Please model this.
Amino acid sequence: MEHHPTVAWLTEAAGAAEQQGAGILLRIVLIVMVLGCVLTAWFLLRGYKRKDD
Model:
């Protein structure tokens, strides 16, 4: 079997992710939740902006 540096790097990165635990996953989930809340608030509140001329 040949040695591929890319495969070795991916294996090492996967091992490092397992050692870190759920920290990065929790950060991603929280960021997506916050962005979703901001976009939902913007979508709902943009309908309240009326110009009564």
